[in-house]
Write a structure and sequence with these properties.
By secondary structure, this protein is an alpha/beta fold. The strands form four sheets. A five-stranded mixed β-sheet has the order 3-6-7-9-11, with helices on both faces. The longest helix has 22 residues.
């Protein structure tokens, strides 16, 4: 059987593997039968040279028609990119993730180092440890944080540590790392967290484990409404359950608000059943 090559977002080519697509659909909460049906539909029309973005769009379209909550979870990577163009909402999302892991979180404007002052995206503290978190947000697929970025973050951390006794430096991104960045991080003691890294415990895995889906996954809200909510630091779907009145910030009508809350509840219920 002839092998079919597909093009990733970074331009590299991969061999088409239908099992990989089916597995990703199941991880998003799709039933085995739905995941199998969608994979077969896409496999029927796939040709060499098709991009992963094309495959994602087709899979998402099929999934949205059959299991909308699973479709929302399947779109988490694109949803995080849609939190831009600035990185501020992404920083808030990371703050929620760190808080879920038991850290005390703050967002200082500037912190003085030994040589110069630095803008620190997130400060996390736990068990006597003080951590500088650099958040690298990208709203384009295929971008990888390279070793230059890792070197830059490590140098900033060292300047801060020399002045204020910081204990750790972290680099977190919503995309992937180059192999050199990973090697340097491991060697230099720079903690890295990104898409699919570390294996089995990457950013997407942690967000899913804590049910911290960004509001940008919701299909019942418009882009404008999502933007207005994020301007008020409403970045996680669960916030809409805990504080449904915040939907008024986006001028969402009562009838539409009910549909939004219903979608969030279905996403959470779908995730809970998948874990079980």
């Amino acid at each position: 059987m002839k092998k079919i090559t597909i093009v990733r977002a970074d331009g590299a080519e991969d061999i088409w593997n239908p099992r990989k697509l089916e597995r990703s659909l199941k991880c998003a909460g799709a039933s085995s039968s739905t995941a199998s049906t969608i994979t077969k539909e896409i496999e029927r029309d796939i040709v060499s040279g098709m991009t992963t973005a094309d495959i994602y769009r087709r899979a998402f379209s099929f999934l949205k028609k059959q299991e909308c909550p699973a479709a929302a979870r399947y779109s988490i990577k694109q949803a995080i990119m849609a939190m831009g163009p600035t990185g501020y909402p992404f920083e808030q999302l990371l703050g929620r993730l760190l808080a879920a892991e038991g850290y005390t979180v703050s967002f200082p404007d500037s912190v003085r180092g030994r040589c110069v002052s630095h803008e620190v995206d997130v400060v996390a503290a736990k068990d006597g440890r003080k951590i500088m978190v650099e958040a690298k947000f990208h709203n384009q697929p295929g971008f990888r944080s390279d070793v230059k970025t890792a070197l830059y973050v490590r140098a900033r951390y060292e300047d801060l540590a020399a002045a204020s006794g910081w204990n750790e430096g972290w680099l977190i991104t919503n995309t992937k790392f180059t192999s050199d960045a990973i090697r340097y991080g491991s060697c230099a003691g720079l903690h890295l967290l990104g898409w699919g890294y570390p294996a089995g415990g990457g950013l997407e895995s942690l967000l899913t484990a804590y049910h911290l889906w960004p509001i940008t996954i919701l299909t019942t809200l418009s882009t404008r409404e999502k933007r207005l909510l994020m301007e008020k630091n409403i970045v996680v779907c669960r916030d809409l359950i805990d504080r449904p009145s915040v939907l008024k910030f986006a001028d969402v009508s009562d009838s539409k608000a009910a549909a939004v809350i219903s979608e969030v509840k279905k996403i959470i219920a779908s995730a809970s059943s998948t874990v079980k």
